[in-house]
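Most newcomers find our protein records easier to grasp once they have seen one. The structure tokens are whole numbers drawn from a learned vocabulary of backbone shapes. The record below serves as our worked example for the rest of this section.
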Amino acid sequence: MRVGLFVTCLVDLMRPEIGFSVLKLLEKAGYEVMVPEAQTCCGQPAYNSGERAASRDLAEKFLREFEMFDYVVVPSGSCGGMILHHYGDLLRNDPELNGRYERLRPRVYELTDFLVNVARIDTLDSNFSGRITYHDSCSGLRELGIKQQPRALLGKLPGVQLTEMKDCEACCGFGGTFALKYGDISTAIVDEKCANIAASGAEAVVLGDLGCILNIEGRLRRTGDTRTRVLHIAQVLAGDA
């Protein structure tokens, strides 16, 4: 079975090591993984800013690059939410493109959802250990129902002690362009998130969306916390953290 890996532009540009961890996980699960070289953005920033023509072009580009695969895996709840819930809005007036999208849509999965419900992995070759807490990213939780999947996978690592933080489902304040347009509000939100992480006593906060990683880690470091690690779940599951 061939899996197309949609790396996401943030992972590609900011933390490519996350992409390599995802690749390792998928290959160990027995899949042939392909990474289309011309892939770019899912179109979410343009879509959220009202630039429908640009986001529609990116949706069509995604179809061309990924519709030939048995599955498409996305290591990001926000990009997964865009593809699975908003491409239909962009393509609904084009029967040919919309038909292609509807045929592809059931084969697109967020990473942890794929590992749990498609690959059904039983064991993970990771020696990661330590006390962690988990942040539920907004799009993954609310658009894709990603809640138990990452926790089920973390539960397969004997060295991991998971402590739930207060308001683990609350936003971190990133929200893409929201953090730029409403910086003071975003800062207040992420400060609350950072306080909850600290109160959990965890050595690391783990999550599944790089936008949240950058926002949380950036605020932790700017406020003097150089100890708490901020990790993508793929890094933990692959033993790369």
